[in-house]
Amino acid sequence: PLALALTGVVRRYSQGQGAIEVLRGADLAISHGQSVALVAPSGSGKSTLLHIAGLLEQSDAGEVFIDGIPTARLGDGERTRIRRLSIGFIYQFHHLLPELSAVENVSMPQMIRGLSRKEADARAKDLLTYLGLGARLTHRPSELSGGEQQRVAIARALANAPRLLLADEPTGNLDPKTSDHVFGALTELVRATGVAALIATHNLELASRMDRRVTLREGKVVELA
Ligand code: ADP
Ligand code: ADP
Question: Which residue numbers delimit the ABC transporter domain (predicted)?
Answer without folding.
Answer: 4-224
